[in-house]
Amino acid sequence: MKILYGVQATGNGHITRARAMNKALKQKGIDVDYLFSGREKQLLFDMEEFGHFRCCQGLTFATKAGSVQIFETMKKNNLMQLYRDIQSLDLDQYDLILTDFEPISAWAAKKQYKKSIALGHQYAFEHNIPKAGENFLTRFFMKHFAPATIKLGLHWHHFDQPILPPIAETHPEPASIVSNKIVVYLGFENPEDTISFIEPFSHYQFYVYGNFSQQLVTDSSHLTHITLCPLSREGFKADLANCNGVITNAGFELGSEAIHLGKKLLVKPLKGQMEQLSNAVALEKLGLGTSMTTLDFAVLKNWLANFEGKRITYPDVPAAIADWIVNGLEEDDWVSNQTLATNLWNRVELPDII
Q1: Among 146, 213, 276, 290, who pairs with 250 as Cys (CB 3.0-4.6 Å)?
Q2: pTM of the shown model
Q3: What Cα–Cα distance (Å) separates residue 45 from each residue in 116, 163, 231?
Q4: What is the per-residue pLDDT across 201-224, written as a single tens digit (0 to 9) for each?
């Protein structure tokens, strides 16, 4: 079997999920080609495992200081190039198209009548789950951005819907947890604002990941409780494994890893982004995290002192999906999807959540 796997590369979460799926698909002997879109190729890092992948412009969004910038997003995207990329993508050699909210592979599959599977958190929003900031435009966007024959939505809880548990990257168990160690990844915020936000809490050790100017590194060198870390997959995994808590925007994949490891979560959803606003609501409903609409000192102080993380042990979802692709697809794909979801949730170890 040969698959084209399209991955939305705007955020690192989709790529992290693709890494986990890549291992599972290889173990099943599936030949996979990768297409990434939404970020310039030179800005991608640690991509060796994907081989000679393609990279297209795709669609992305522009942000500034924690908010989506509508007009900048419109200027940043080239719809004519998107159309050309969809038209020129030849899928004849592939048996199946897999898309993680990636529009070029998804729409090329639709136009060429290729069977396709959509895998990602965004597809959970077609079901009755906690939502915030939803309107006609967001519903239209979620439904038509990257369509597919079969849609496998992912979420932290099933909410009595036919969606799957998250794909949470596994980490080695640390020898011990450092109780005052907090990992910070606020990629949509200004780094200077992030530093000012955590600076007063000198009793904690903050490991802040991001792209930092040399000037900011120099200016922050006297803050011994704050370590500025360049983006590094292995370094981030190591710090995440033995930290006590995570402060981040309200993306899905990092939240999934934190919950799977039992870390406490403080999230600031990206303003104007329905998915992140909804994630923040879901975390609080489930008692798995705290949210804030701004970089709020009072919220941070209370979270550091009083919130405790809950651990949900999720099964090996990538292996189950890979096996399902090879052996489980049936003529009635909807029934097959529901069976996959039920089997996976029966293997989830849930703490007491609302």
Answers
A1: 276
A2: 0.88
A3: 27, 30, 9
A4: 999 999 999 989 999 999 999 999
